[in-house]
Design goal:
alpha+beta, five-stranded antiparallel β-sheet, 24 helices
């Protein structure tokens, strides 16, 4: 495994060495062109773009061995970053970072510019250190640490952009929101790292010295990715909370308005039962409704001419008294629709006669003869409805809402400043069936800060500590490996001899253990294993099951073989049968019965095989007890054809017997009868006595049916639930009706108590009977279908009776077609 790792590391080092020139030249050119484009397009601060151009030019000059020019460019880079940093510190406005204004321009954040200039300054210092100080054998800590900052900063900004974190959430406001800035910064850091790494010095080493630092850098980048993912989870939790709150408000609005519309409909239903509508009674009813639902702006009664006659409350609604809706008013459409549909209709938000905006619910009043008595009108103000819901629930604290209908704002919280519009959630709800409301929910920045837990930062710090620990361990292991590799070469010969001796000893011990294991496993086997000399008939080996399965001890078994009793005779018979087999070197399997010590019989399966080993012929005999297998086969046959509860045949056996008896009756032109027996009111019996007593009742009914159907050729099966089916071969309709009468009489004599039966005080059955001789044009299922129809007729006629169907026309061709 270690040698494979070495091989891969050497390949990676070779790839780096081959791509080194292309990467330095291409990366530097990309940095220069990209930074110049960003500066021209004004997508980032001028100091950042100029510093990137200078740093890339310095790296390119260093690679081309223009040492003085590269040093000059590195100094200019550091000077540019310092001037830009001071300018940014003096001129930037940091008050907006505290207020979290939603209109803040995050594309040119002062914190992001400061962070970018800081990491570029670190990169320029790293470059100057590399330029002035002679290269060391390993990556210097200070130089490598400073060179990593641009790569880490740019990669973290890319993580934030890929994960779609908002620019003001957590620590994301320290990073640029432009893909170009982050890509160029990452490329700058990567170029510095590759340029600072002395690849040529480590070509002779299997594990180069740059592996641990680069491993640590990768771990840091992975830790940052994990940190950003946890930040994204916190932000998703904030959005889920906002969605839940907004959905709750939408649900509350819908529930509240539905409750008030239902109340208006109930009020209309009450007045529809009266031929006249007295004003005093209506006003009292309306006032009672207002006490239950104070969100109404007004409750009005409108007559057939669309004129508003009565209003509650009268205050602030005097303008609508005796107001007649003109034909040009949009409400006419909704009034006519409510009249046509004879159901309540809600309008979209419209200007109200009382002033302001709201929506109206028209509920028509019709009596049972479809006489029209006008409308009950419920007037709502959107602001009143939503404000009342928001004031009654503490769950909405810290959230702002905006409601839009048909692209128009119909409700909005007094102010949206101080709320995070990046985490806004949109929920649609259908209030009036034609103009849905869109509700926007905005969490406050206080809630946004509460959702930001310490888990991402804690996990990041722990990951950084683990990264440092693993990097240190990897570096230590590298040094230990280099030292141990030298000692390993000196001890290879001695180690080989020791391993060879140990291998021989282990092989000997393994063979001994395998022999012991084989002997123990053979003795633990339930099958008897016997090895016999083929020529002398001498018993060479037998395991414990040979005598324990027969009830003997080993001493008793040997005496029985010597005295020639039944055991000796059976053994001699087995040997003779194996020796006389025509297949001399193949297995022979047969079954026989042996007698145990207590005289009981034991069914066994004997497998014999002749084998030749070392020019000597042996006979291997394996005796397997199949007594339980025989009993299991019998039980499986019973389980596959019997119903477990009642003991009669199951439906699967009935269907197979139906096809067989149908074909036999068709061949011999004999009658065939079928009865479907259903227990009457069995569901009520279960309700009265419980399902356990119901199972007992099914067993009792099954026993009565077995006593009533006595022929061995008859097949009684449980059809489904409380239904049984009886197949009666060679039985015409008269014979079947006689059996049905016997069933009814036996149930009457058994008198199984049924207190909830609507037919009798005891359990009764209804029987559907069909009988006939199979003829062309019908199939076996027709017999079942006619019996089911007869059973349905018996149930419909009052139960506790037998109904037969005399028009059975079986068809054998369908059965034959299915078989083919």
């Amino acid at each position: 495994m270690v040698h494979k790792i070495h091989k891969y590391l050497l390949r990676i080092q070779g790839v780096f060495a081959q791509c080194y020139s292309i990467f330095i030249i291409g990366g530097s050119a990309t940095l220069i062109v990209g930074a110049a484009c960003l500066l021209a397009l004004s997508q980032t601060a001028w100091g950042v773009s100029i510093a990137l151009i200078l740093l890339a030019s310095a790296t390119l000059s260093h690679y081309l061995h223009y040492c003085r020019f590269s040093s000059l460019l590195g100094g200019l880079t550091l000077l540019t970053t310092l001037i830009s940093l001071v300018t940014q510190l003096v001129t930037a406005d940091y008050s907006s970072l505290i207020t979290f204004a939603s209109s803040q321009d995050v594309s040119n954040s002062p914190l992001a510019n400061l962070a970018s200039l800081t990491v570029l300054g670190a990169g320029s210092i790293s470059f100057l250190i590399n330029e002035r100080i002679s290269p060391l054998k390993s990556l210097p800590l200070t130089r490598g640490f400073l060179a990593c900052w641009p790569l880490i900063y740019g990669a973290t900004g890319l993580y934030a952009l890929i994960l779609d974190l908002p620019p003001q959430y957590g620590f994301t406001h320290f990073f640029s929101i432009q893909y170009g800035d982050n890509l160029l910064m990452s490329l700058c850091g990567l170029i510095l790292l590759i340029e600072h790494t002395p690849w040529q010095e480590y070509q002779e080493e299997r594990v180069p010295a740059w592996v641990p630092p680069y491993f640590g850098l990768i771990m840091i980048l992975v830790s940052l990715l994990g940190y950003m993912i946890l930040e994204k989870k916190d932000y998703n939790f904030l959005k889920q909370t906002t969605q839940h709150t907004t959905q709750q408000l939408a649900t509350e609005i819908t529930r509240s308005l539905n409750a008030q519309r239902n109340a208006l409909q109930r009020m209309a239903d009450r007045w529809s039962e009266q031929k006249t509508i007295p004003k005093s009674a209506w006003l009292a009813d309306a006032n009672n409704l207002l006490k239950d639902f104070p969100n109404f702006q007004a409750l009005e009664w409108m007559d057939q001419d669309y004129t508003i006659r009565w209003v509650v409350p009268l205050e602030s609604n005097q303008k609508v008294v005796n107001f007649r809706v003109p034909p040009s008013n949009p409400a006419i459409f909704h009034l006519r629709r409510a009249f046509t549909q004879q159901s309540s209709v809600t309008t979209q938000v419209i200007p109200l006669v009382q002033g302001g905006e709201g929506f109206i619910n028209y509920t028509p009043i019709f009596d049972q003869k479809n006489n029209f008595y006008g409308f009950i009108v419920g007037v709502f103000r959107v602001k009143s409805v939503i404000d009342s819901l928001l004031s009654n629930q503490s769950d909405y604290e810290g959230f702002a809402f905006k409601v839009i209908e048909s692209g128009r704002i119909i409700y909005q919280t007094n102010y949206l400043e101080g709320y995070d519009q990046n985490a806004a959630i949109k929920i649609s709800t259908n209030i009036n069936e034609h103009s849905p409301w869109t509700i926007y929910g905005y969490p406050s920045f206080a809630i946004s800060q509460k959702s930001h837990s310490l888990l991402p930062l804690t996990a990041f710090i722990a990951a950084i500590c683990l990264s440092g620990f693993f990097t240190l361990c990897l570096s230590t292991l590298r040094r230990v490996y280099i030292e141990s590799e030298k000692a390993q070469k000196a001890n290879d010969k001695l180690t080989y001899e020791i391993e060879e001796r140990q291998r021989i000893e282990e092989q000997f011990q393994e063979q001994t253990l395998q022999l012991d294991l084989f002997t123990n496993l053979v003795n633990l086997s339930r099958d008897a294993l016997i090895i016999v000399d083929y020529n002398t008939r001498e018993l060479m080996y037998y395991n414990n099951s040979t005598f324990t399965s027969l009830g003997y001890s080993e001493h008793e078994f040997m005496l029985a073989l010597q005295h020639g009793n039944l055991v000796a005779k059976k053994m001699e018979r087995i040997i003779q049968k194996a020796a006389s087999s025509r297949r001399k070197l193949t297995s022979s399997i047969y079954q026989m019965e042996v007698i145990k010590k207590d005289g009981s019989a034991l069914q066994v399966e004997v497998t014999t095989r002749a084998a030749i080993l070392n020019h000597r012929k042996y006979l291997l005999v394996v005796v397997h007890d199949v007594t339980e297998h025989r009993e299991l086969e019998k039980r499986l046959i019973t389980l596959s054809t019997r119903d477990m509860l009642t003991g009669v045949y199951n439906r699967k056996h009935f269907e197979s017997m139906l096809i067989n008896e149908w074909e036999r009756a068709a061949r011999q032109a004999e009658p065939l009868a079928l009865m479907i027996i259903d227990i009457d009111n069995f569901r009520f019996y279960n309700e009265a006595h419980g399902h356990q007593q119901g199972d007992i009742c099914l067993k009792d009914v099954a026993n009565i049916l077995k006593r009533s159907i006595t022929r061995s050729v008859d097949v009684l099966s449980r059809f489904e639930g409380q239904q049984f089916v009886a197949l009666l071969p060679e039985t015409d309709q008269c014979g079947a009706e006689e059996i049905a009468r016997r069933i009814h009489n036996n149930l009457h004599d058994a008198h199984i108590h049924h207190p909830l039966s609507s037919i009798a005080s005891f359990v009764t059955v209804s029987i559907g009977l069909s009988a006939g001789i199979p003829e062309p044009g019908s199939c076996s299922q027709d017999l079942v279908k006619f019996a089911q129809k007869a059973l349905a007729l018996a149930k419909k006629s009052g139960c506790n009776q037998t109904v037969s169907n005399e028009h059975v026309q079986p068809n054998l061709r369908e059965i034959k077609g299915k078989k083919q």
